[in-house]
Design goal:
Layout: E1 2-3, H1 9-12, E2 25-26, H2 47-58, H3 63-72, H4 77-90, H5 94-103, H6 106-109
Parallel strand pairs: 1-2
Helix pairs in contact: 2-3, 2-4, 3-5
Amino acid sequence: MVFDNAADVSMLRPWIPATGRVQVVVTTRDRAFDRLGFPVPVGVFAPEESVAFLGRMTGLDDPAGAAELAAELGRLALALAQAGAVIEERGLSYGGYLRALRAEPLADGLRGIEGDAYPRTAPGS
């Protein structure tokens, strides 16, 4: 069972099974959830890990391009996975993906959606 981007321990607690053989994963930035189980901090990839990861995902042999993209994305695992999937699916180069990413205003891509569980938007949107 996965609870992604959890925001309130008291709201989540009733939904976590008390018995049985269930593994529960909670993703959150709120340290209050540490009391529910065993926290597993997730950091960013090292530069060389980022390049290797993107190379495996995309099949591209362009370490310099992969390094530039990884740096742009802060070497965050989820961002790299998303970029790799898009690059592979659309047959893009790393540079092509970067150009498309930079051409899309952040505020346009991260607008809040009425009724969405995650109310935050990008700054300026």
